Each structure stands twice: as structure tokens, then as C-alpha cells.
Amino acid sequence: MRVAIVHYHLRTGGVTRVVENAVCALAPHQVSCVLFAGDIGDAQAAERPNAHVLPALNYGTTPDSCPTPSLLADMRAVARETLGGPPDIWHIHNHALGKNSVMPELVRALAEDGERLLLQFHDFAEDGRPGNYQYLMETLAPSAHIDLCLYPQAAHIHYATLNSRDYHFLQAAGIDRNQLHLLPNAVAVHRASTDHALPAPATTRRFLYPTRAIRRKNLGEFLLWSALAEPGDSFATSLRPENPVARNIHDAWADLARELSLPVEFARGQAQRQPLAALYRECHAVVTTSVAEGFGLAFLEPWLFDRPLLGRNIPDITHEFSDAGIHLDTLYPTLGLPVDWIDFALFKQKIADAFSPFMRAYGRTPDDAAVREAVNAAIHDDRVDFGRLDEPLQAQVIRKLRGQPILREQLTPASLCAELSDPAFIQNNRAIVETTFGLRQYGQRLCNIYAAMLEATPGLVTGLPHRQVLDQFLKPERFTLLRT
């Protein structure tokens, strides 16, 4: 089987890692792959001999700068030369994310030519990325082909999602379930060192948040737990954001940590030039406080290093992990605190002020009832979820707890459950991650999808109205200030 894999870039990062794992997982199945990307990155170029750079695929390009017929002709020629024949499958990642308008037009052209397409979504422009969505509307809507570009439908076009939430969203929007697949990311077991150091002594526990600490990672909640740390405990994040806006928010948290003398080391992986495996080995436990994830690698990878996982759960993302038998009992779905700890009127106003322009950016006009739903989603039994607050309100709570740590008893939960270290618990989760979410299983799932696609007869292409997908994501109860 011959497969062409397409993405905006192959620089180090999440989707690139997925592509690398896919190529590795497909090799035993005699699947030949050619990779197309707008940028590879100098450090990675030598490691990817079957990768080809086509600048038109990179962020920010439009069909005006590179006509689709010319781009497609170049890709087909390179694919034939590399694979020894035309691709049987075109596997395209995040084509509708709004990073350029070349990718959606390319998808439309391939679809109308009867090429078998697997369109894999890692992220959605409809999911908290109004700028990306507006870009798509501005660049594609005038062509009158926007639905064909974003969500084409035909027997030879299949979709893959990383989690069941997105799967059900696309199904509810109208994607035929026979052409819709759940494809959880592979956890590359070979990345986990087999030399598992024992946890550090209890008096020198380190809690690691392995993340590039962008806003939705909810760094304030990590600092809250550090403010309540036992003597000798330390906390560390792995990476600093690259995006200037996210970096400013990150650095403001670092300033607060210094002001309050919190035991937190920021961007330890960068500062110490340590690989992630080394950071895992030196920590007592791994922590996640993120309020939104596309797949949830953070919920699986720690077990491969025999480290417990603590912090915030995201049930929409993790329930399939739980269904597979992975125990996530150490995680909490919300971090509740008394409403009277914050200026509730100010909180409601912040939501109203952010929710309305957020919805208008997607072409919607929210009513008062929708704003109330967004507020009510943050409140349960006169308690507000810390993860629903914005940074200034979170900082007020952290200052309060730092000054009066006895108030932690009013939190639910009141601790990180940091004493958990049952080897049987950890080994159970490790075994399930290895046997259910490893590369071998991923390769088989992907080959099964490809095989189903090869049986399809190309037919007439229609476009699913893109607003039906938008409806799934713009529910008021999903709104959080940390995603604006």
C-alpha cells in the first residue's frame, strides 16, 4: 500500500510526533509512505528521507500564491517517484484548522478527483480558535466552495478523530459513521526508559508538569498546589511557551511565584537541557492541571515511567482510557472553592464580557440565557471551579491560600493525593497503556481504516454545512475564560 501523508510542517511538536509514530507503526504492514510538509526543520531533515518540502503547505499561504492545480501536480509527481506509483491513500492532518487556505482547497481538489482521503483532526478552528475560523471564512467563503473544502462527503472520504468527544461531535454534525473513525494517538513505548528510578524520598518530592505552559494548561492551578506544598517539596514545569502572548502570561505566573516564594522551577527541561525522560525519572509524581486537551497524552505517558499521575481530569477526553481499564482515581474533575472567596459579580461580568465577543467572532449573537448557562456551568452547590477563573482571580485565590494555608480544608479536593505510590496500581496502568495504546496497536488500527477506504467506490462529493460542526463546539457550558 502507498500512502501520502500531508501536514503544514514537520517541525518538532505534537502532530509531527503523531506522523512519525504512524510511519513507524505502518512499516511492519508493508505500507510505504511519502511525507509532504511546508517546512521540515533543519535538525530533522536528515532523519526523514521520504519527506518533501513544499512551501505552499506552510502556515499563512493562499491559493493565490500557489495555484492548487500546480501544487497538486507537483505532489503527484513526487509521490509517484518516491513510492513507485500513485498513492492509494492521501492521509491529511488538520486541513480545516485555518492555518492556511491552500490545504482546504487541496482537499477539495483531491476529493473531486476521486482520491481516497483520510482527514485526521487533531484540533478544530471551531474549538476556541475564533481567529482561525474567521480566516477560513474570509478566504474560502467567497469561492462558494467552503463546505466542500472543510467537510467534503463521499464514500471515498473518511475522517479520524483522536477522542470520542470529537467523534460524536462530527457524527452529530452529519458525518456518516461508516466514514468516521476513532483513532487514539499512539504512545511510543520505546520512548520510556526501562531504567526506572525509584521515587525520590518523601522529604524531597518533586512534582513535574510536563507541558509547554500555554494558557489552557491552567498553570495557576499548578501554582495553587505549590502554595500548599509540604516542606521540602518542589514543583517544576518542563517548557516555556514560544507564542509571545502565552509567554507573557507564563512569565506573569513566574513573577507571582517569586513574590510568594513558591517552590516552583519554570521550564526546567529547557534550563537544565534535560530530555523529558530524565525529568520523569527524577520526579516523585506527574501533575496535569489542563482544562482542555485534544488527545490526552499527558494521561497515558507517565505510567510508562512508573510515575503516578495527579491533578485535573478531563472526562470528555479520558473516559475511553478508563473504559480500557486505566485507573485515574487520583484525578479530580473540578477543583471547587467557596464562591465567597471571589468577587462573584466581577466573575459573572468577566464571563459576560468575554463570552459575547467570543461568540460574535464565530458569527453568533449570544442571548442573556446563553451567558447565564456559561456562568452556571462554573458553579455547583455554591462552589466555583478554580479552572473556570481567569488569571487575576486565580492569583487572588493563591495569595489567600498562601497567607492562610489552613483554608485548604475548604477546597474540594483539599490535596493532590500525593501519597499514592502503590506499585500494583501503577503497573496495572502501565500494562494497559503498553498493550492498548502502543505503536503495534496503532499500526493495526490505521491499516484497518485504510483497508476499509480501499473498498469504497469514489462517488459524488457533497459538502457538509460547516456551521453544523460549529454548533457542536459553541455550547455555552463548554466556555472557559482560560480559552479566550
Helix content: 40-55%
Count of individual domains: 2
CATH architecture of the largest domain: 3-Layer(aba) Sandwich
Strand order of the largest sheet: 3-2-1-4-5-7-8
Indicate the radius of gyration in whole angstroms.
Answer: 23 Å
Q: Specify the structural class.
A: alpha/beta
CATH class placement of the largest domain: Alpha Beta
Mean pLDDT: 91
Work out the helix count.
19
Shape: globular
Query: Looking at this structure, what is the CATH superfamily of the largest domain?
Result: Glycogen Phosphorylase B
Named CATH topology of the largest domain: Rossmann fold
The count of DSSP E runs of length 2 or more, i.e. the number of strands, is 18
Give a description of the structure.
The structure is a single chain. About 1% of the residues have low confidence. The chain has a 7-stranded parallel β-sheet, sandwiched between helices. It has 19 helices and 18 strands. Helices cover 41% and strands 14% of the residues. The longest helix has 18 residues.
